[in-house]
Amino acid sequence: MYFAFLKQNYTESLKSLKEGAQFADIWLLAGLLSVTGMTTTFQAMTQLVVDKTTGRMRAFRLTQTSRLSVYLGYFFSSVIIGILMQIAVFMIGFGILSAVDGIGFSLYQVLLTTLAIILNSLVSAALSLILLSGVKKSSSLTSLGTIIGTLSGFLSGVYIPMRALPEIGQTIIKCYPGAYSASLFRHILLADQLKITFAPLSPDKLLDFKADFGIGLSLSGQLTTVVSESIILLFATLGLLIGSVIILKINKKNL
């Protein structure tokens, strides 16, 4: 979809910059990794709802497995699936970009990207768990999955750059964990390309451009960094898991 509909729009706005097309391609790949983490972990987590509605989860009572252990099993299964799917998307995307634009990434970037993939899977699975903890009908999963897939693309800044959104839209995006995952991927994968594409720009203009394209989110007047985004994602994961445990205790009769 990107190469068919979106690439021309992005490259057109960057045509005055050196290797603008390469920048746009890497920028989109970073966003797609964030979206992939959310959509795949969500789809994997829907099995939780299916098992609850079909009565399969009652079998766990016979083994005296705690509710928390059961839910954590679904959580970690979703995390693993999310990691594998993101790695697949990264490898395919890297292959395409290498063939089309001659783009390459260093081993250090690949290692950091792998760590970011793990973080993205953790926070996405935690968000999926809390979203699905209160869902009681499997018939609603298809429409809910469609909504999640669409929203994750917009909230990660894949379809529309930050600069094109009003202030309220940017504020909403900053409340979504996937936006920090997307920014983290962009920081890592665009580290070398930024030095080429924006070499002529002054430091102030470079900061403005990074803010416009979601390479760092503005919090308290400062753009987030790789370290701050990683910390935010870790705390978001912890907070969402705690929220899921609270919901589980409230709805303990559903298991």
TrEMBL record:
<feature type="transmembrane region" description="Helical">
    <location>
        <begin position="26"/>
        <end position="50"/>
    </location>
</feature>
<feature type="transmembrane region" description="Helical">
    <location>
        <begin position="71"/>
        <end position="100"/>
    </location>
</feature>
<keyword id="KW-0812">Transmembrane</keyword>
<dbReference type="GO" id="GO:0016020">
    <property type="term" value="C:membrane"/>
</dbReference>
<dbReference type="Pfam" id="PF01061">
    <property type="entry name" value="ABC2_membrane"/>
</dbReference>
<feature type="transmembrane region" description="Helical">
    <location>
        <begin position="231"/>
        <end position="250"/>
    </location>
</feature>
<dbReference type="GO" id="GO:0140359">
    <property type="term" value="F:ABC-type transporter activity"/>
</dbReference>
<feature type="transmembrane region" description="Helical">
    <location>
        <begin position="144"/>
        <end position="162"/>
    </location>
</feature>
<protein>
    <submittedName>
        <fullName>Multidrug ABC transporter permease</fullName>
    </submittedName>
</protein>
<feature type="transmembrane region" description="Helical">
    <location>
        <begin position="106"/>
        <end position="132"/>
    </location>
</feature>
<feature type="domain" description="ABC-2 type transporter transmembrane">
    <location>
        <begin position="23"/>
        <end position="189"/>
    </location>
</feature>
<dbReference type="InterPro" id="IPR051784">
    <property type="entry name" value="Nod_factor_ABC_transporter"/>
</dbReference>
<keyword id="KW-1133">Transmembrane helix</keyword>
<dbReference type="InterPro" id="IPR013525">
    <property type="entry name" value="ABC2_TM"/>
</dbReference>
<keyword id="KW-0472">Membrane</keyword>
